[in-house]
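Exercise 7. Given the encoded structure of a 122-residue chain, write a plausible sequence.
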């Protein structure tokens, strides 16, 4: 079935998720992309997140003018991933099907606001 969303028209909602978990393989892929050791990439690009319910290695964020923060690899002017070819597995799988609920919501709001650039705020 054909995908029913267009990431190029989205301001990067999925990249604003506060916890974007990465695996050791993801870190190795990013390390290779940047010509770093896996240990250096892990330290530079991720942090350890641990609670009673979670024990994850998470991508770092930076401030964003649309969302409070966004993935550190997201270009805030172009609104796109800067490491697309080396992106983590969770990003490759998103939105886990052929339909993105945020894209449907965004499309609906833009049509009803009669503004193709409209971005709903929280």
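Solution.
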């Amino acid at each position: 079935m054909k995908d029913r969303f267009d990431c190029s028209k989205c301001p990067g909602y999925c990249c604003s998720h506060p916890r974007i978990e990465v695996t050791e393989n993801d870190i190795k892929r990013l390390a290779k992309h940047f010509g770093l050791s896996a240990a250096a990439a892990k330290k530079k690009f991720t942090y350890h997140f641990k609670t009673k319910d979670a024990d994850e290695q998470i991508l770092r964020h930076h401030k964003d003018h649309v969302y409070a923060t966004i993935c550190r690899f997201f270009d805030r002017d172009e609104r796109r991933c800067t490491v697309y070819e080396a992106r983590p597995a969770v990003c490759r799988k998103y939105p886990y099907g052929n339909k993105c609920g945020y894209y449907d919501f965004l499309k609906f709001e833009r049509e009803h606001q009669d503004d193709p650039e409209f971005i709903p705020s929280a």
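Remark. The CA atoms of residues 94 and 113 lie 27 Å apart. Students should compare their own answers with the one above.
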